[in-house]
Design brief:
- This protein is an alpha/beta fold.
- Helices cover about 35% and strands about 10% of the residues.
- GO terms for molecular function: kynureninase activity; pyridoxal phosphate binding.
Length: about 475
């Protein structure tokens, strides 16, 4: 299975002018989405002072959606509707759809959010559920999908996996009384490289075709922004009898995923990055339909289904309140639910998803590719490998990266450059020892912001 790619964006000589950047914004069909977000002001960013947003003040340049997306204006409206429901009818909110509310009754809110998220990850609504947080969901799915045997017990993962993923995998191996150092296989780039080639990953899969149990990789690597070839890697690993899971924390709301068509076994993600659902917001998980089937051939009282750590909310609504302790799992990902979900968390998530419902990931991805290509073009213009004080360690192919360029600075420059950017009202994040991660988000960032960022960034370097 291959992913069709358009040609890499090419920019003319006049691309290095503010007028050209403005012309790209004027022609941008998605530009109107910026008005649906509250952008922190430059003054607040520079001073770090907490204040109510002043929409009349100059907005900051917010390039940190890879860490925390900014607040959609819909959140206030949705939260007000939620509070009205709670205050007006109390417990009846579980079963009552209120007129003029953008939210479904409480027991259906998770399905409302899941339906929106399913379009973002390329899945059927029944294969997705809004619940928990990323690491909790990863633990739950590893409990279901990691079944080590005498011969197959190793988990293959990214050498620079986000720490919570690393810890989760380590703990599951130890839970089975196995040695984590012997059974964690870390896949890293070649010496001197930052990008992990697909061929390198496939070679590790071949090497562990007989003793590998699970392959778990990030859809997009948080440090470099590399976008892995999910369909090719998944197909290759499954052909060698490995279960394949993907951590889509940095891929959700960022790239155009097709988890169902790519036959991914399971996936997890958070929603506070490109999903814009708020700090620590509710996460999501995907379980392919082939793993979510419930078989009643042995009778209604003896359903057969994939083992999981079960909870009350994963039981079918038709029998949930019978309280007879006869578990009848919801078919699909919904059967992996545990407890009653927080309606407040779901409210923020549904509000954020309402913005995505107005567009498509294909359109957002198209703009994102052009944004990062423009950023790369401006960063490299008028520089050479010998003169520049940084390297871009994200893949040069815009289709092999997400909405992020990771810029590795020469030693000793990171904190000074970061301080200069923040004082100018530009929000990026840094990763030691020297990386600035720059993430222009297609929903609310502009080409003009990219242009002005590069001006400030290069100015900071020249002053040092």
């Amino acid at each position: 299975m291959t992913v069709t790619k358009a040609p890499k964006p090419v920019f003319p000589a006049e691309a290095t002018t503010l007028e050209y950047a403005a012309s790209l914004d004027a022609a941008d069909p998605l530009s109107g989405f910026r008005d649906q977000f509250i952008i922190p002001s430059k003054a607040n960013i520079a001073t770090k002072k907490l204040a109510k947003p002043d929409l009349s003040s100059e907005p900051s340049t917010y390039f940190c959606g890879n860490s925390l997306g900014i607040q959609p204006k819909a959140v206030s409206k949705y939260m007000e509707a939620q509070l009205d429901t709670w205050s007006s009818i109390g417990v009846l909110g579980h079963f009552t759809d209120l007129e003029d509310s953008p939210l479904k009754q409480w027991q259906l809110m998770s399905e409302q959010a899941s339906a929106s998220m399913s379009k973002i990850v390329g899945a059927a609504p029944e294969e997705v559920v809004a619940m928990g947080t990323l690491t909790m969901n990863l633990h739950l799915l590893l409990a279901s999908f990691y079944k080590p045997t005498e011969t197959r017990r190793k988990i293959l993962l990214d050498w620079k996996a986000f720490p919570s993923d690393h810890y989760a995998i380590e703990s599951h191996i130890a839970w089975h009384d196995l040695n984590s150092k012997e059974n964690m296989v870390l896949i890293g780039p070649d010496e001197g490289e930052h990008e992990i080639s697909t061929d390198k990953i496939l070679s590790y899969i071949d090497k562990h075709a007989e003793d590998g149990a699970v392959l778990l990789l990030p859809g997009i690597q948080y440090y470099t922004g590399q976008y892995f070839d999910i369909p090719k890697i998944t197909e290759y690993a499954q052909a060698r009898n490995l279960v394949v899971g993907w951590d889509c924390a940095h891929a959700f709301g960022n790239v155009d995923l097709k988890l169902h068509d790519w036959n991914v076994d399971f996936a997890v993600w958070c929603t506070y990055k490109y999903g814009n659902a708020g700090p620590g917001s509710m996460g999501g998980l995907f379980v392919h339909e082939k793993h979510g089937k419930v078989d009643y051939s042995a009778g209604e009282d003896a359903p057969q289904f994939r083992h999981r750590l079960a909870g009350w909310y994963g039981g079918d609504r038709s029998v949930r309140f019978k309280m007879d302790n006869k578990y009848k799992p919801i078919p699909g990902a919904g059967g992996f639910q545990l407890s009653t979900p927080s309606t407040m968390d779901l409210t923020c998530l549904c509000a954020a998803m309402s913005v995505f419902d107005q567009t498509s990931m294909a359109d957002l991805r198209q703009k994102s590719i052009k944004l990062t290509a423009y950023l790369e073009h401006l960063l490299l213009t008028d520089t050479t490998e010998e003169t520049r004080q940084f390297d871009i360690i994200s893949p040069s192919d815009p289709y092999a990266r997400g909405a992020q360029l990771s810029v590795l600075l020469k030693p000793g420059l990171l904190h000074a450059v970061s301080d200069r950017l923040q004082n100018a009202g530009i929000v990026c994040d840094k990763r030691e020892p020297g990386v600035v991660r720059v993430a222009p988000v297609p929903l609310y960032n502009t080409y003009t912001e990219v242009f002005k960022f590069v001006e400030e960034f290069k100015g900071a370097l020249s002053s040092l």
